[in-house]
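Here is the promised in-class demo. Please do not try to memorize the tokens; focus on the logic of going from shape to residues.
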């Protein structure tokens, strides 16, 4: 019986007064959840989703992140890609976590995208923040696995993505599925230091860096002490925790074999 953590690819940020991409959907059995049983000598398919692309100039939404999945004995466990960050006057995309809404100079605020779409329990993510209307009109932050993205407000600042979740499945604390931060008026800011992409700037300027691509997904499988795991291709790794558990970490799609 093994524990698992599945993170999908983050959404790409929009371009021009744009919201940030949402984090990829996140689900885990560690600690205290329902484990998955593997058969010795059987190879299982592990699919790691890539991040969504940033929106191209002059004004466009980003793209949604790609799903990640782990298929075991006819059952596929899937986390959904993060929602796209929207450009000006558009709502953010839905997904594992939602993308941020774009800014606007009139009308209602453009909403962030819905998280946990499609719904699973416990939820795989949270909604993105809404864009700001009027003035220096930035986009909303992307949703994260632990919190919603920040709603945009006035002022020349970038609005933060929702917090990710800290997990010890690898034996050390790692934060998974953080939403991207948005761009703002007149700035080349916005980042994809989390799993979602950063929003691009605008407000009449000609940005030089544009929006951020979404971060790639990751899948972690942890076996009990005494069991053995093999991960292919060799880009993926198998390590041991201090207490002797074996941990397979997949950063690209491949196969997992238990012995």
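The designed amino acids, position by position:
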């Amino acid at each position: 019986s093994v524990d698992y953590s599945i993170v999908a690819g983050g959404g790409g940020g929009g371009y021009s007064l744009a919201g940030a991409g949402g984090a990829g959907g996140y689900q885990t059995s560690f600690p205290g959840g329902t484990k998955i049983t593997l058969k010795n000598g059987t190879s299982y398919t592990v699919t790691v989703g890539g991040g969504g692309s940033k929106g191209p100039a002059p004004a466009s939404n980003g793209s949604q992140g790609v799903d990640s999945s782990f298929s075991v004995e006819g059952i596929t466990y899937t986390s959904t890609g993060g929602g796209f960050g929207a450009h000006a006057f558009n709502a953010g995309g839905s997904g594992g976590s939602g993308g941020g809404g774009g800014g606007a100079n009139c009308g209602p605020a453009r909403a962030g995208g819905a998280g946990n779409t499609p719904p699973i329990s416990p939820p795989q993510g949270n909604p993105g923040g809404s864009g700001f209307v009027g003035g220096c009109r930035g986009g909303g932050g992307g949703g994260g696995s632990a919190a919603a993205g920040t709603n945009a407000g006035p002022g020349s600042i970038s609005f933060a993505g929702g917090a990710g979740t800290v997990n010890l499945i690898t034996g050390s604390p790692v934060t998974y599925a953080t939403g991207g931060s948005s761009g703002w008026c007149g700035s080349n800011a916005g980042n994809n230091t989390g799993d979602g992409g950063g929003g691009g700037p605008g407000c009449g300027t000609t940005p030089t860096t544009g929006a951020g691509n979404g971060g790639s997904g990751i899948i972690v499988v942890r076996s009990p002490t005494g069991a053995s795991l093999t991960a292919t291709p060799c880009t993926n790794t198998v390590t041991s925790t201090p207490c002797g558990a074996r941990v397979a970490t997949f950063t690209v799609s491949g196969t997992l074999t238990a012995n």
